[in-house]
Write a structure and sequence with these properties.
With 344 residues, this protein is α/β, with parallel strands linked by helices. The chain is built from 17 helices and 11 strands. 50% of the residues lie in helices and 15% in strands. The strands form 2 sheets. Strands 8-7-6-9-10-11 form a 6-stranded parallel sheet, with helices on both faces. It is elongated and about 70 Å long.
Length: 344
């Protein structure tokens, strides 16, 4: 028997049980319930899919109760980036980690934790050939215009904190290159209204060059569509940097936090880079403007450098190389890795 834990199922369960008001109480309830069921009728293997806060605790409980169940975690938590001491708990609780990135497997091997690099599903989903003209056409954009994507993030707090940085950057670029067009994606109507409110004080000529594009329906991915149709992408650091890399678009990333949050994060984070393209490459492939470096002038300068076709092309070729790495034959077969785990 094979058991999976799906985060969306857990969320659905939570939203439909009004008596469970506290999230932590719910997770504890579900862990205890599953362990009781599997004590009476054990499964052979448990595969936790993402949701490490829940799945790693469940795996720990399985081991503490000495249940004859193999435990697998698909999608590693970012233990390689911060609070690296957590790897020791993973070693005690998990029999196999299925990793999305090759550097994760290397990290776990250094701690003698069984791991397999199985590739990233998004890397397999997005094509290696990705013409920008077709992407522009899909959004109704002129193919002969230069479009700069400005992505402040998708959450209210991120937009409130980072949109002014982007509008000031656009102002600097607009004065030098008035022909540039700027694209800002909005995941829903609430975020679109927030962005448009943030553009109220932008000058008339620049405002005419900024286009806020909203998801047309629940299935559309406006952020991806905007990045795909843009000649250059400026985006808040996060998982979107991986998506932009897999779209092979020249980009610069930035981020600003509350000063206290930044100091805490700086103390906890143990890696030299913050963006996934740089982490995957093991070197600086894209510009990272973090905290005090994230200024309109610095961001405008970084974007301007990517307007040089040769500079942009070099970065795009590096993106393509890493894309191929994530779907190459060097990946492990997840099925065989799980079978090996069962038989070990």
């Amino acid at each position: 028997l094979l058991a999976f834990s799906l985060p969306l199922y857990n969320l659905f369960y939570l939203l439909n049980h009004d008596l469970i008001a506290n999230l932590e109480s719910y997770w504890l309830f579900l862990r205890v319930d599953l362990v009781e069921r599997w004590t009476e009728r054990p499964v052979d293997i448990f595969i936790g899919i993402d949701a490490p806060d829940f799945n790693l605790r469940l795996s720990k409980t399985i081991k503490e109760n000495n249940l004859p169940i193999k435990t697998v975690q698909y999608v590693s938590p970012s233990v390689w980036a911060w609070r690296q001491g957590r790897v020791h708990g993973i070693k005690r609780s998990i029999d196999l980690v299925l990793c999305l990135f090759p550097f994760e497997k290397t990290f776990y091997e250094n701690y003698e934790v069984p791991a397999a690099f199985v590739g990233h599903p998004l890397a397999k989903q997005l094509p290696l050939k990705n013409p920008i003209i077709e992407a522009k056409h899909q959004l109704g954009l002129a193919a002969n215009k230069t479009h700069i994507a400005l992505l402040p993030g998708s959450r209210r707090g991120e937009i409130e904190r980072l949109l002014p940085l982007l509008t000031d950057t656009a102002e600097i670029l607009h004065r030098k290159y008035p022909e540039l067009e700027f694209l800002i994606p909005a995941i829903n109507d609430a975020r679109k209204q927030q962005i448009e409110q943030g553009l109220q004080n932008v000058g008339t000529s620049l405002k005419a060059k900024i286009h806020v594009l909203e998801n047309s329906d629940a299935e559309s991915k406006i952020g991806r569509m905007v990045m795909n149709a843009s000649d250059i992408v400026a985006l808040a650091s996060g998982t979107a940097t991986l998506e932009a890399m897999l779209l092979h678009r020249p980009m610069v990333t930035f981020y600003k936090l509350n000063w206290l949050t930044y100091l805490i994060a700086k103390f906890l984070v143990k890696i030299p880079y913050y963006s996934l393209p740089n982490i995957i490459a093991g070197k600086k492939v894209i510009e990272e403007l973090i905290q005090a470096d994230a200024t309109p002038q610095h961001l405008a300068t970084a974007i301007e450098k990517l307007m040089d076709h040769e500079t942009a092309h070099i970065q795009m070729m590096q993106h393509l190389s890493m894309h191929k790495q994530l779907i190459s034959g060097n990946t492990d077969d997840p099925v065989q890795a799980i079978l090996n785990c069962l038989s070990s």
